[in-house]
């Protein structure tokens, strides 16, 4: 019964993954197998030397995204969830508004941010901050914060971070909202009767009992930050906003394409970063449930 | 009434009007307004002619309102045909994903055998991989598998609906297996024992006893997977090179490119793309939200 699904999953997901790792040690244009050449670590060597600038900038962007997701959408999403969990009129409506960006298709999200908000001539952001002039929100590559001469956080990447936060906050909110609903209210009441204020109740009673949700959110956030792709891609990847997944895609499929070896090496690096984390999460999850089943 | 329920009532009945509550509502209304601005801007633009927004910007008092953009986008984007492509890919993907992952989850969570945890790990981890590590070998593989003409316009798995359906099923069954196995674990073991005593085959235990009990989880997953598969554009852009055969999301993902020239037309086209997921989300909101949280809360 589990046979066909497993064969399908392994054939289309895991075997290609292993093949990609193999391809990362070769040079190939992706057409005839006879042209495939084993080159050892050359692709990796090139990434760390010739393409150093792109690669390190992408790593910085992924890291900035990771920190940003934890600092901004996660905290805001949790805060909104806490507010909505109280006796609020129209809580359904608020929930829908915050969550809608999560279900919207990327075609729509891309249009909204590229044109409605960030259009250099007549987008909303320009109307508010432009003082009558034009602002090239998604094209401005200069660094807002720079690390040394060549690397930093570019202004257009910050503009994209705003769009990502807009989409991510609702997701976090919904996860926390569900978590809060499962917290036993008598615990809160007891804490209140004991004279703790709201902050103390949250800090010492509610937050600790949200542990399973916190783990899920940590996993979602780390994985999403590492494999972030779609919003940046639909905004046509302005220079300096590349992340690892974009570098991979560009090498594999971009203009002229056919850089299978190097593309696969980027993909393998991305995979290794994700995989270490995934292994940790999956084994700890199933070890826990296994112990639960045994006792 | 239990103590918990009493506490619940006490917790939710708190002082009515205070500075705190006013602040709370202002904060919520303000952020909600911020959240809705890009969406409202797109809807608004879709009803306005091009020269209006060019002259006055996206947020300005409208001089004219029109449905022309919707008519033009419908024809130029070949929207009806794209909806049909989406349906042909989405429906089989959704049904097969749920069917396959419920079987795997059933075998892994209701029976103890050597490899069930390993199998669950494989499926769960598979869903968390970046798509980019898979795409190149998958593309090469699809390009070398021939299909008869009545199954595929291109004569290959690459460029056929089946290619997209298979990768959706393979990729999405990771998440669904994870959720369904968590859910099935909570069903009492005695169900299986009783069925076995009655002589029910393994298939019968799955189809007639366990599956009907997982309907709430299945409904939630169906709504989630609907939006995920509908919103996919990565697989479809790479594995379906013929623009005309692409599902709506991927054929219109770069709205500024091929089909449309002005922003207001794009706005109308993007509404066509957004509409199905919005309808599903609004109609099935309850399932949707529970779907995200199954296996994470106590139930």
CATH C-level name of the largest domain in chain A: Mainly Alpha
Number of helices of chain B: 15
What composes the largest sheet of chain B?
A: none
Tally of domains of chain A: 2
Strand-residue fraction of chain B? under 5%
Mean pLDDT across residues of chain B: 82
Mean pLDDT across residues of chain A: 85
Low-pLDDT parts of chain B are none
The appropriate CATH architecture of the largest domain in chain A is Orthogonal Bundle
Structural class of chain A: mainly alpha
Give the count of structural domains of chain B.
2
Q: What Rg of chain A is obtained from the alpha carbons, in whole angstroms?
A: 23 Å
The quaternary organization reads as: heterodimer
Mind telling me the CATH superfamily name of the largest domain in chain B? MetI-like
Overall form of chain B: flat
Q: Would you write up a description of this structure?
A:
The complex is a heterodimer of chains A (295) and B (299). Chain A has 295 residues and is mainly alpha-helical. Chain A has two domains: 76 residues, no CATH class; 193 residues, MetI-like fold (Orthogonal Bundle), CATH 1.10.3720. Helix content of chain A is 70%, strand content 4%. The longest helix of chain A is centred in the last third of the chain and has 35 residues. The model of chain A has no long low-confidence stretch (mean pLDDT 85). With 299 residues, chain B is mainly alpha-helical. Chain B folds into two domains: 56 residues, no CATH class; 176 residues, MetI-like (MetI-like fold), CATH 1.10.3720. In chain B, helix 2 packs across helix 14, helix 4 crosses helix 14 and helix 6 packs across helix 8. The model of chain B has no long low-confidence stretch (mean pLDDT 82). Chains A and B meet through helix 1, helix 4, helix 5, helix 6 and helix 7 of A and helix 1, helix 2, helix 3, helix 5 and helix 6 of B.
């Amino acid at each position: 019964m589990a046979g066909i699904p497993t064969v399908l999953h392994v054939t289309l997901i895991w075997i290609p993954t292993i093949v990609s790792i193999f391809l990362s040690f070769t040079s190939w244009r992706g057409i005839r197998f006879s042209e495939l050449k084993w080159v050892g670590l050359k692709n990796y060597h090139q990434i760390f030397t010739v393409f150093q600038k792109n690669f390190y900038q992408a790593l910085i962007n992924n890291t900035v995204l990771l920190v940003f997701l934890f600092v901004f959408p996660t905290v805001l999403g949790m805060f909104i969830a806490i507010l909505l969990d109280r006796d609020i009129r129209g809580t359904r409506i608020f929930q829908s508004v915050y969550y809608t960006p999560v279900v919207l298709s990327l075609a729509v999200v891309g249009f909204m941010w590229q044109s409605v908000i960030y259009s250099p001539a007549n987008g909303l952001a320009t109307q508010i901050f432009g003082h009558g002039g034009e602002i090239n929100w998604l094209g401005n590559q200069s660094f807002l914060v720079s690390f040394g001469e060549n690397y930093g956080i570019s202004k257009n990447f910050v503009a994209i971070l705003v769009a990502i936060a807009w989409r991510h906050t609702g997701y976090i909110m919904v996860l926390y909202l569900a978590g809060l609903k499962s917290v036993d209210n008598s615990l809160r009441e007891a804490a209140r009767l004991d004279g703790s204020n709201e902050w103390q109740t949250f800090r010492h009673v509610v937050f600790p009992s949200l542990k399973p949700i916190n783990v899920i959110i940590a996993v979602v956030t780390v994985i999403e930050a590492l494999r972030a792709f779609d919003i940046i891609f639909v905004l046509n990847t302005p220079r300096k906003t590349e992340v690892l997944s974009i570098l991979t895609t560009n090498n594999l499929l971009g203009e002229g394409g056919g850089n299978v070896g190097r593309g696969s090496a980027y993909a393998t690096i991305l995979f290794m970063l994700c995989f270490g984390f995934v292994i940790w999460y999956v084994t700890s999850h199933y070890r826990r449930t296994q112990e639960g089943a045994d006792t | 009434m239990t103590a918990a329920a009493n506490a619940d009532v006490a917790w939710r009945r708190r002082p009515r009007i205070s500075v705190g509550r006013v602040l709370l509502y202002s904060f919520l209304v303000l952020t909600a307004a911020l959240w809705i601005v890009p969406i409202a801007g797109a809807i608004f633009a879709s009803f306005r002619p091009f020269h209006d927004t060019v002259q006055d910007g996206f947020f300005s008092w409208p001089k004219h309102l029109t449905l022309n953009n919707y008519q033009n986008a419908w024809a130029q984007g070949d929207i009806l045909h794209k909806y049909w492509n989406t349906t042909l890919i989405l429906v089989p993907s959704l049904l097969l994903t749920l069917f396959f992952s419920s079987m795997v989850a059933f075998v892994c969570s209701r029976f103890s055998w050597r490899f069930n945890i390993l199998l669950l790990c494989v499926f769960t981890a598979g869903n968390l991989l970046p798509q980019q590590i898979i795409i190149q070998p998958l593309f090469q593989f699809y390009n070398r598998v021939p299909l008869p003409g009545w199954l595929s316009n291109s004569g290959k798995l690459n460029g056929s609906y089946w290619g997209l359906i298979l990768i959706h099923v393979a990729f999405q069954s990771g998440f669904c297996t994870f959720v369904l196995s968590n859910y099935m674990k909570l069903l009492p073991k005695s169900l299986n024992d009783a069925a076995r005593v009655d002589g029910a085959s393994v298939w019968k235990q799955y189809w007639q006893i366990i599956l009907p009990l997982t309907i709430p989880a299945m409904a939630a997953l169906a709504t989630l997977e609907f939006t995920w598969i509908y919103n996919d554009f990565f697989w479809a852009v790479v594995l379906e090179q013929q623009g005309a055969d692409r599902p709506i999301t991927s054929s219109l993902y770069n709205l500024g490119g091929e089909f449309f020239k002005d922003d207001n037309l794009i706005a109308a086209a993007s509404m066509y793309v957004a509409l199905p997921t919005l309808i599903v989300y609004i109609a099935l909101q309850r399932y949707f939200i529970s779907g995200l949280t199954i296996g994470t809360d106590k139930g």
